[in-house]
Task: inverse folding
């Protein structure tokens, strides 16, 4: 960051303070409007009439030196002349050119506010698509590069589905819900304001963004780093959205276009730049909460998904534990092979049959001819050869075991049952029984394993130090973010704690593994 930009954050903070004077409970809406304008993006405000949506646009104009503003209320009878300017009669008459006079209309403005945007006619909507995305307006035969920095659209409703408004809706990167004043003190302050008050002198000229600065900032924003671990987080968020869509109803799908992801990346870089940072940090990722939802009812679910992704995967690529875990798993397999011997033998035991509830039965042979009769495993285990016990016998019909009688019996020396003086055998089967026999590893092998343990422990420590250094650099920015409410801050702390816990767990698993072969060697 060059010397001239070292005070940008403080300047933006002061700028927002002046712009937000007596604009109660709209501080974040105004901040996001300024962020979108510096990033060259568009913002949509959803809210009922009379909640200061247009006031936000008028205050945004004050952030820029000598900025021109254009404001228009859309209606179903609105014409392109009213938005883009009237046709020049002289050009049409003298040069046979169909061109508009755009100077005092949308193409000639830096700050634009379009109210009731979804009521715009198709010709206006089509022209806006190019203006919003490429910042180009086709005026007759010419393609005019417009200098629109902040375009704010507003409505008390979202675009109706199935009316061809999807492309226009996708152009608005930031989507905010604007509500009326909630706290009593702010509401009373609003009622106490005088009717006549100047707005133009709210922002000192020294704080306003000049044309030269604005153009210079765009180049600086492009140089801001979006680090690999945050690119990994974006990949994870995309994967979670795809998984969510796989089980959602067709009309409840979340669609995030590649164009929107590209704009999101630019917005993140812009946030970092305005905070005097050279790199995007994890806290900036919470800006996505206002960029990815489509329908009003999706907002809470999207916020929960993003919060979960940030907490669990925010530092995942930074710590890169996957390679260490793979090394640990291979090391464990090697230790298992070298420290134990498996001896297999065949044993004869009662053949188990189980009912739907998992109760185990053993079958008596020839007690009722060919009709199967069973005894419960728990009754079998309680019998001995010296004392008779009373227990129930069962038959089996269509997989259901039913008690048929109670009788006295005891075990015989050869593993059968003696009932009423007659001996009956239990249905048996042969199974393989594995016996684990410890095997002492060679001293040279233990030395090699200790070296592997040291490598893993060192890898854990390096990753822990990397995580702590990153968090130390970020934590001072977490609670002073210009564009986010403070309720997001604990989630960043949780993400750090989660990543740290994973490293410490891997370190503990390494220590336990080392202890396992040392115990074998000692024995």
Result:
């Amino acid at each position: 960051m060059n010397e001239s930009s070292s005070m940008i954050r403080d300047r933006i903070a002061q700028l927002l303070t002046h712009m937000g004077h007596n604009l109660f409970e709209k501080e974040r809406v105004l901040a996001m409007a300024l962020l979108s304008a510096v990033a060259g993006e568009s913002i949509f405000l959803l809210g009922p009439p009379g909640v200061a949506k247009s006031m936000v646009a008028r205050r945004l104009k004050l952030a820029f030196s000598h900025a021109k503003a254009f404001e228009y209320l859309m209606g179903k009878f609105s014409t392109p002349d009213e938005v883009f300017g009237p046709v020049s009669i002289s050009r049409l008459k003298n040069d046979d050119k169909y061109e508009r006079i755009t100077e005092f209309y949308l193409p000639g403005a830096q700050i634009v506010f379009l109210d009731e945007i979804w009521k715009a006619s198709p010709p206006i909507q089509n022209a806006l698509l190019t203006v919003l995305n490429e910042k180009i307006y086709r005026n007759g035969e010419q393609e005019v590069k417009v200098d629109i920095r902040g375009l704010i659209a507003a409505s008390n409703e979202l675009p109706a589905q199935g009316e061809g408004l999807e492309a226009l809706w996708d152009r608005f990167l930031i989507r905010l819900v604007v509500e009326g004043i909630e706290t009593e003190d702010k509401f009373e302050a609003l009622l106490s304001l005088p009717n006549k008050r100047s707005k133009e002198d709210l922002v000192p000229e020294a704080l306003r963004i000049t044309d030269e600065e604005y153009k210079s900032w765009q180049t600086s924003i492009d140089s801001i780093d979006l680090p690999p671990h945050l690119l990994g987080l974006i990949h994870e968020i995309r994967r979670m959205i795809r998984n969510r869509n796989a089980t959602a109803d067709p009309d409840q799908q979340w669609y995030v276009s590649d164009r929107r992801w590209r704009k999101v990346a630019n917005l993140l870089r812009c946030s970092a730049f305005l905070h005097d940072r050279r790199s995007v940090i994890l806290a900036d990722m919470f800006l996505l909460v206002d960029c990815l939802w489509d329908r009003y009812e999706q907002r809470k679910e999207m916020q929960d998904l993003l919060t979960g992704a940030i907490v669990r995967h925010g530092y995942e690529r930074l710590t890169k534990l996957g390679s260490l875990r793979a090394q640990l798993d291979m090391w464990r397999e090697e230790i298992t092979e070298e420290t134990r011997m498996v001896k297999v033998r065949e044993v004869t035991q009662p053949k188990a049959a189980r009912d739907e509830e998992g109760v185990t039965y053993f079958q008596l042979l020839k007690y009722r001819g060919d009709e199967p009769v069973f005894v419960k495993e728990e009754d079998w285990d309680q019998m001995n050869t010296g004392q008779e016990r009373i227990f129930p016998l069962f038959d089996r019909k269509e997989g259901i075991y039913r008690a048929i009688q109670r009788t006295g019996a005891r075990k015989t020396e050869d593993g059968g049952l003696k009932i009423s003086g007659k001996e009956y055998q239990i249905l048996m089967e042969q199974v393989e029984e594995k016996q684990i026999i410890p095997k002492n590893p060679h001293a040279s092998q233990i030395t090699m394993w200790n070296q592997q343990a040291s490598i893993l422990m060192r890898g854990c420590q390096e990753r822990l130090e990397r995580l702590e250094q990153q968090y130390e650099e970020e934590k001072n920015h977490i609670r002073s973010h210009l564009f986010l409410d403070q309720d997001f801050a604990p989630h960043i702390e949780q993400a750090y704690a989660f990543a740290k816990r994973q490293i410490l767990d891997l370190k503990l698993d390494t220590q336990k593994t080392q202890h396992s072969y040392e115990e074998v060697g000692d024995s």
Q: What stands out?
A: Residues 228-314 form one domain. The CA atoms of residues 24 and 321 lie 46 Å apart. Confidence is low (pLDDT under 50) at residues 1-5.
